[in-house]
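User: Here's a chain of 172 residues. Predict its fold as tokens.
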Amino acid sequence: MNFLPESALQRLFVQYGEERLAGVAARAIAHHRAMHGQFNTTGELSRVLDSALRRARSRGATSSRRSAEPKGAPPSTRCFQALRIAVNDELRHLDYFLRVGPSLIRAGGSLAVLTFHSIEERMVRRAMRKGARTDMAQAVDDAAGVSRAESAAFGAARRPRLRPGPRPGPGQ
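Assistant: Prediction complete.
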């Protein structure tokens, strides 16, 4: 993050954070690095991003059907999500699991995947639909989430979704 060009940061924030103000966030990071050097703490990064994103949102720079960050979350939440996904290579690991995981399930067993954000949710839903037999397609659409009360009580958890997959038949 301290060394990525502004354009790469912007792509990362769009692709992995779904941040509609990715350009604002990337510019704020590049500006801070030019003026003050590298970031030394996540708190420093958070302050720079939160300030820039709040300013942009207050000027009406939000043109999207999506709402802002989850209620009560700092504006930098999506940017930190993007950085975490990139650093940990999370989507590649999830893709591997979705390709290999079903082959590890015994006949009559089942597979369920807990997702924490919309990017994972879309990947899991697509993979399960692709592997679903027609009589099991409904299971793919039956994701369970936490209640609003649970989400309010445990705000850091946001709203994870448990997506059940189709059960493999005999010999699968």
